[in-house]
Amino acid sequence: MTGTIIENLSGRKLAVLVTFLLLCQITCFLIGGLVAPMPANVQNILGTVCKDTSIMKNDTTKWFYNRGKGKCKSVDLGETRHDVSERDIVFAFQMPIPREGETYDYSRWQQNLIGVLQIDIGYHSQMEVKPRSTITIDARLAYRNKEDPDYDWKLYTQSVEKRVLDCDIDIKTEDYLYNCSHIPLFELGSLYHDYYLLNIRLPIDTPDMNAHIGHIQDMWVTVINQNGGFTKVWLSLKTVFFPCIIGILVWFWRRIHMLERKPVLLEKMLLTLGIALCFLNAPFEYLTLQFDLPFMLLLGDIRQGVFYATLFSFWLIFAGEHMLIQDASAQSSLKQYWRHLSAVAMGCISLFIFDMCERGVQLRNPFYSIWVTDLGTNLALTFIILAGISTGVYFLFLCYLVWQVFINISQKRQSLPTMCSVRRLHYEGIIYRFKFLMLATLICAALTVIGFILGQVAEGQWKWDENIELEYTSAFFTGVYGMWNIYIFSLLVLYAPSHKRWPVNDNTSDTQNLSEEIEFRGFPNERSEISSLTSFIRKATID
Amino acid sequence: MITSCVFSMLIFSIVSIFATKNVEGSQPVLQKTVEALFTDRSDAIHPGTCKVFTSSKRQSKMCRKEPGLGKILVAAKQQAIAACEESFQYDRWNCSLVYNRKAKRSIFKKIYRETAFIHALVAASITHAIARGCSSGELSRCSCLGSFQNVSTQLRGGCGDDFKFGKRFTKNFLEWKQAGTDQIAEILKQDVNIGIDVVGQQLREVCKCHGFSGSCTTKTCWKRLGPFNSAMGLLKKHYHHAIKKKLVNYTTKRAITPNVRRKMEVDRKKLVYLQKTPNLCVSTKGRICKDRHNCATLCCGRGFIVGKKSVSSRCRCKMVDCCFVKCDTCVEEVDFFTCK
Description:
The complex is a heterodimer of chains A (543) and B (340). Chain A is of the alpha+beta class and 543 residues long. Chain A has two domains: 5-38 and 229-542, Rhopdopsin 7-helix transmembrane proteins (Up-down Bundle); 41-226, no CATH class. Chain A has twelve helices and 13 strands. Chain A has helices spanning 5-8, 11-35, 228-258, 265-281, 285-288, 296-321, 338-364, 374-415, 421-457, 472-494, 509-521, 533-542, and strands at 40-46, 48-51, 89-95, 113-122, 133-144, 154-165, 167-168, 179-180, 183-188, 195-201, 215-226, 461-463, 469-471. Chain A starts with a helix and ends with a helix. Chain B folds into two domains: 26-202 and 228-283, no CATH class; 285-340, Wnt (Wingless and Int-1), C-terminal domain (Endo-n-acetylneuraminidase fold). Chain B is built from eleven helices and seven strands. Chain B has helices spanning 2-24, 29-39, 57-65, 69-87, 113-136, 151-155, 162-173, 183-201, 228-240, 258-267, 292-298; strands spanning 204-209, 219-224, 243-244, 272-273, 288-289, 304-318, 326-339. In chain B, helix 10 links the parallel strand 3 and strand 4 (272-273). The longest helix of chain B is centred in the middle third of the chain and has 24 residues, at 113-136. Chain B is globular, with a radius of gyration of 25 Å. Residues 15-25 and 146-158 of chain B have low confidence and may be disordered. The interface between A and B is large, with 83 and 57 residues.
């Protein structure tokens, strides 16, 4: 009779393993904190106002930029001009902006680009901005590469978008600025080219269009991109974890196949969890260095979603399989758990639909946002609330299950002294296994939550002394990422079936008695090697 | 023969060094720059690379390195003057360069309340303009401060906070550190600091979530530069709350009690000046005031004349455009007040 490795592992070996994993965990955290820079970079770009003298405004080969050969003539919006019509105004944003005397270009390591628009609107007593007025933006995005000449901008995408302006003002004084909330403008899933150029026009095709947006003084676009240095550290971590998890998965599966029985549900679940983690770990990002892959943001979301869904399902099933009261009927399968898992599925599906509606559509039009229209907002909110409710239901249910397991455990505890020593050892093994996972899971979850809250509350950078500074946000990301990898790694190792005959040292008559007893009572379906806890439990219930 | 020639050359060079030092004057660059920028209301081109004023050697070097700087300085200067004139329109001191219209009584002659204010104002304006210039890409040598990682390789172009650079650059440009340690220099340095800090106080933090499915697992925040006119509002408050210091001999050293120290800490956050402003009531005759309340102070109790005049003003502004204000001109009969 064999159990899992964790039951047969001596305390000393377990301590060594746990220490090793803890060291790995600390390394992950420190790599993020000391080596990696902050995860994302921000650049505030002030729009240059250019004059477009052409008559047809929909010519997408004509671009306005403020640096380099052929730059536009800038116009000062402060003074009243009569030779410039509102149709001739173009706000040009050339990115990235130069720093330290060098003209930088985007590197493909920077992965993605998110643009946020902020509009400075001056107060005029004669034309107050109505709350929640709509602004119509004609936005065009162009790209250029290093080897291209300065004027050779090529159209990347173009869209006319409506956004809601949310402005208020405290002191109503002439020319003071409104407090306008920022407007999400675009999200690029890949940063394939070297330079980008955004041209924004405010069309007035109908008399009502852009009529209640007040007097625009400046336009700012803030671009956020992943930090190249962070991507490098992140990808190196993935490159290390990926083969490790694959290796341990192969080892795990071989161990199960060496047994004479078929794998039980829990083992299948562990395997699925490992595969989901491999999917998350796979360093697909290397491909973006060579190819233009705008779907990477979406893929990243899906990968994380799949992983969390599997992890949540695993916890449910683990708790369910350790219910010490189960009927001895056939092997448990996933079908038995459909009610339990429906909450997870529901949450995942609603999040997936939401993501497809937002990031999926952004593949076609990077300026798209579901939050702009009222219908879209309602739809998005519906899906998010559904996902939230599912998560709530899930956690309530999980807590209920765990609570029940603990009740059962305490009941069994009472009858433990009356059992013969072998069966007592069995039960103690079961309880130990369950408690170990509970403890590990709780610690991991608590650390994640604490880390997240600390990140929200504290400053981004922590200083220990003059020389050692810790980039906390990055450390949190690599730490949490490493932690769940290590968590699943240790689950795969510790919950794999053991080769050791049970009990190893305790070859007393007691054991033989029990084996005989079991054999005598007869469980024809079950081979003697069944390692799953449930089998013991079933026997116990029959006893 | 040769030795005497060398000797005379040596004497000549020493004399010339002293002479140039004398020409440059004893004023530190800080004071000179502020004065030059604020005084010159013309668009004249001055010698040196900065063009907008006669720059020092160091400043010329900075202007040469950064070609866009000249334009930024012009913008900073105009912004400061316009903001000053607008917000002091109805005050006894109407942002004039001299007191009581007497050419000899320049506000830069001593450290008056106004002098202190102008130092803060010019510093604030330069800081603001530099930060803007960094954001628009007009200045190409801006760097990211406050990020301890290797900037050039890791960051690759950017940070959300151009104010920090503007602050450092302004201090460098005004040669803040080289201004000296005498009492006058200390006071002006503090005033400049307050001006710069006022711009910093106008920064607003904005955040954007862009994590998993757009959730806040990843949140990025940046500082948004406030408008200059609200910084001006704050500066004007500083002007009114400025404190006067006595000229002290540094030979008399007094023990610093905790009470004094606390007072010094508070004082560090205020504008400081040395000389009392002369009575400006003499020159407010004929000035226009805003309303009865304002007239009471502006006219120094001499009373005022209420007249009627037709004023043409903007009205019925129609928003047919995005960026330029287009209004009708309305003619209105309004009261207007002039000091007696």
